UniProtKB/TrEMBL annotation:
Keywords: Cell membrane, Membrane, Transmembrane, Transmembrane helix, Transport
SUPFAM superfamilies: CorA soluble domain-like, Magnesium transport protein CorA, transmembrane region
Family stated for the protein in its record: Belongs to the CorA metal ion transporter (MIT) (TC 1.A.35) family.
Any one cellular-component term (Gene Ontology): plasma membrane
Annotated TM spans: 286-304, 316-336
GO MF: cobalt ion binding; cobalt ion transmembrane transporter activity; magnesium ion binding; magnesium ion transmembrane transporter activity
Protein name per UniProt: Magnesium transporter
Compartmental location: Cell membrane
Main location: membrane
Source organism (scientific name): Tamaricihabitans halophyticus
Family matches, as InterPro entries: CorA_cytoplasmic_dom, CorA_TM1_TM2, MgTranspt_CorA/ZnTranspt_ZntB
Length: 342
C-alpha cells in the first residue's frame, strides 16, 4: 500500500527529455508518464536522460522498450569499461566524459550509459559532472539533421563526449610540457616534480584505459551491418560524415594518449638523468676541491714532523713550504678548471 501511494509521485518527476516527430522538436522536459506515452507513438523519436538514482524510472522504461536485464544492471552499476553490446531490440553503449584539472592534473571521468533503440535514446549518467544540457545544444546547432531520428540524437551525445575526451587529453599534454620544462630548471624541487609526474602518469593511464576501448566501440558502431540507427539497419548516409568526424576525434585522442604515455616515461628518465648528472658534477667538484686542499695539508704535515729534514730550522725551508702551499693549489685549480672539473 505504501508503494502504491508513491507511484503517482514517481511518475510526476520531470526528466531531461525531448520528443521529435517528423524531424521537428515537439516537446521537451516532460515527466515519465508522458515519456512512456511517447515511446508508444511510432512516429515519435524520444530522448530520456536518467540519473543512476532513478532506478525505478529506468526499469519502467526498460519494460516498455524490452531492454535487456544485463544492460540495465550495467547502467545502474558503475565502473564499466567503454563498450558496445548488441541485443535483439537495441544496442547498449558505455562511454565516459572526461575533464582534466589544470591546477592538479587530476583526470575526472564520468560514466555514461546509452541505450540505442529504433525510436528512442536513453542516457544514464553516474553523476552531474556530465551536463546533459550540452547534448541539447549540440542538437540545436544542427536541427536540419533531426530527420535522421535516433542517429541524430546519438551523434549529439557522442560529439559532446568525444570533444570532452579530446580536450582533457590536450590539457594533459599541456601539463606534461610544463613538467618537462620544470625538470630542466636549475633549482627544481625534485619532490614536487616527482609528485606532479605521478599524478600525470596516473591521469594519462586512466585516459588511455578509456580511449582505447572507446575507439573499438565506435569502430563497431560504424559497421553498417550492425547499426541500430533506423528501421532498415543502415546508417543514414547524411550522418555518416558526422559520425566519421567523431571517430576521427576518438582516434586522435587515443593516439595522443599513447604518445603522452611515452612522453611521461621519457620525462621520468630525463629527470633521473638530470639528477645523476648533477650528482656527478657535485662529486667532481667536491673531489677537485678535496685534491686542492690536500696539497697544503700534506705540505704542512710534512714540515710539522719532529725530525730533521732539508731546510730544518732554516729560513729557506720556511719560504719553500710557503711558496709550495700557495703555488701548487693555484696550479691544480687552473688544471681542474681547464678540464671543467670545477
Amino acid at each position: 500500500m505504501h508503494e502504491y501511494r508513491r507511484q503517482p509521485l514517481l511518475l510526476a518527476i520531470v526528466l531531461s527529455s525531448r520528443m521529435y516527430r517528423d524531424g521537428t522538436l515537439r516537446d521537451s522536459d516532460f515527466p515519465l508518464d508522458t515519456a512512456l506515452r511517447y515511446l508508444r507513438d511510432e512516429r515519435a523519436v524520444v530522448w530520456l536522460d536518467l540519473p543512476p538514482s532513478a532506478a525505478a524510472e529506468l526499469r519502467k522504461v526498460s519494460a516498455e522498450l524490452d531492454l535487456h536485464r544485463l544492460a540495465v544492471e550495467d547502467a545502474l552499476g558503475a565502473h564499466q569499461r567503454p563498450k558496445l553490446e548488441r541485443y535483439d531490440t537495441h544496442a547498449f553503449l558505455v562511454t565516459y566524459g572526461m575533464t582534466a584539472d589544470p591546477a592538479t592534473s587530476q583526470l575526472t571521468a564520468t560514466e555514461l550509459s546509452v541505450f540505442i533503440t529504433e525510436r528512442a535514446l536513453i542516457t544514464v549518467r553516474q553523476n552531474d559532472n556530465l551536463d546533459a544540457g550540452e547534448f541539447g545544444e549540440r542538437w540545436d546547432t544542427t536541427p536540419e539533421l533531426a530527420g535522421s531520428g535516433v542517429a541524430f540524437l546519438l551523434h549529439g551525445v557522442l560529439d559532446y563526449v568525444v570533444d570532452q575526451q579530446l580536450a582533457a587529453v590536450q590539457e594533459l599534454d599541456t601539463r606534461i610540457e610544463e613538467l618537462e620544462d620544470l625538470v630542466f630548471t636549475e633549482h627544481a624541487d625534485n619532490t614536487a616534480v616527482q609528485r606532479r609526474w605521478l599524478r600525470l602518469r596516473k591521469s594519462v593511464s586512466r585516459a588511455r584505459r578509456i580511449l582505447l576501448p572507446m575507439r573499438e566501440a565506435l569502430t563497431s558502431l560504424l559497421r553498417r551491418e550492425h547499426t541500430v540507427f533506423d528501421g532498415s539497419g543502415q546508417t543514414d548516409s547524411q550522418l555518416l560524415p558526422f559520425f566519421q568526424d567523431v571517430y576521427d576525434h576518438v582516434v586522435h585522442a587515443a593516439e595522443l594518449s599513447e604518445s603522452l604515455r611515452e612522453h611521461v616515461t621519457t620525462i621520468r628518465e630525463a629527470q633521473l638523468n638530470v639528477q645523476s648528472n648533477r650528482l656527478n658534477t657535485i662529486m667532481k667538484k667536491v673531489t677537485s676541491w678535496a685534491a686542492i686542499i690536500a696539497v697544503p695539508t700534506g705540505i704542512t704535515g710534512f714540515y710539522g714532523m719532529n725530525v730533521p729534514y732539508p731546510g730544518f730550522q732554516a729560513t729557506f725551508g720556511f719560504w719553500t713550504a710557503l711558496v709550495a702551499i700557495v703555488l701548487l693549489p693555484i696550479l691544480l685549480y687552473t688544471l681542474f678548471k681547464g678540464r671543467d672539473w670545477l
